Amino acid sequence: MTQWKKTTVGCPACLEDGEFTICSFIDIAEDPDLKESIFDRSLFRFTCPECGEEILVSYSCTYFDSDNNFMVALVTEKDDSSLKTDCYTLRIVRSINEFVEKIALMEDGIDDRIIELYKIMLEDQFEEERHGAEILGIYYSGQNSDTKNLLFYIITGNVENCRAELSFDTYTAISGQLENSAKFDESCTEINRLWAITALQKGFSDEKEK
User: Fold this and answer.
1) What is the pLDDT of residue 157?
2) CA nearest neighbour of 156 among 123, 117, 197, 113
3) Structural domain range at position 192
């Protein structure tokens, strides 16, 4: 069952406190209309009642999809031991962007492990093309409705943000090439950039030992 609760948020502009209703657990089968508010981030948007300032507030929130057998948990506390499950695919993330991305990947049936490994390749390619560029994050942003290409949004700190596309055929080919690396630490629930770097290093090390 979807769970709501009220909390207080301090406005960074006027320093006044305001009441904010957060959603700590989302049962998407029960409340499908919440999906749009996740993807447009309005579920995390706080508007100060005093001055009107708008900010995104990251809070612990679990998304449960019983139809597709997965859970995505945005965890802001250090302790996530209570989130273990054997019944569903579980992914733990630490930011709103990751939360939105994981839900999109799971819904589209895209292997998030392959995507995280591919992002490292895309990061290297981007840095070769734009020397000195500071990449702050690369996020999956859905599929092109016409071509079915996978779309990515590249956020940078010192150059213009941009988009990248990966054809579904190339995604399938990469999946085959990176299959062994993707199986690294299959019990891991936090599939992110650090996981991908470690998995690629392990795969490279294994290849050298053959």
Assistant:
1) 87
2) 123
3) 112-209
Together in a domain, 73 and 25: yes
DSSP 172-188: HHHHHHTHHHHTTTTT-
Residues 103 and 140 in one domain: no
What is the band of 94 on the pLDDT scale with cuts at 50, 70, 90? Answer: very high
- Same-domain check for residues 28 and 64: yes
Instruction: Name which of 55, 58, 68 is nearest 99 in CA terms.
Output: 58
End-to-end CA distance of the chain: 51
- A 10 A CB-CB count for 19 gives 10
The reported pTM is: 0.90
| Residue 152 dihedral angles phi and psi, to the nearest 5° | -130, 145
Cβ pair 46, 96 in contact under 8 A: no
Note whether 53 and 12 are within 8 A (CB): yes
> What tens digit of pLDDT does each residue of 31-61 get?
999 999 999 999 999 999 999 999 999 999 9
Q: Write down which residue in 54, 82, 108 finishes a domain.
A: 108
User: Cα separation of 209 and 49, whole Å?
Assistant: 62
Residues 102 and 117 in one domain: no
Residue 81 is predicted with a pLDDT of 56
Closest CA to 96 of 147, 50, 37: 37
